[in-house]
């Protein structure tokens, strides 16, 4: 599994020459409502097993949570189920708020 920092992800999203990854936010609804990276899709961690068929196995997927622990677990789960292009956002949205978008609410 790949790891990516918040600044690296921001650069990827800003690069029009690169295909945009699928941003999979695995936090809870209230967390997503508090703050999220633009374009992210919410799929809370506990729903992933039941909704795995909703995900494109061939897509570049970046897993996102608050600090990076839950998303790391989801990324490992996806890899065990045949997803080859999975990346974990190290530090999660908290790192994004500190390093990329200081206007993002923190919790």
Automatic annotation (TrEMBL):
Residues 17-105 form the Rhodanese domain. Gene3D superfamilies: Rhodanese-like domain (3.40.250.10). SMART domains: RHOD. It holds the Pfam family Rhodanese. GO terms for molecular function: transferase activity. Keywords: Transferase. PANTHER family: FAD-DEPENDENT OXIDOREDUCTASE, SULFURTRANSFERASE YTWF-RELATED. This is Sulfurtransferase. It comes from Pseudoduganella umbonata. The lineage of its organism: Bacteria, Pseudomonadati, Pseudomonadota, Betaproteobacteria, Burkholderiales.
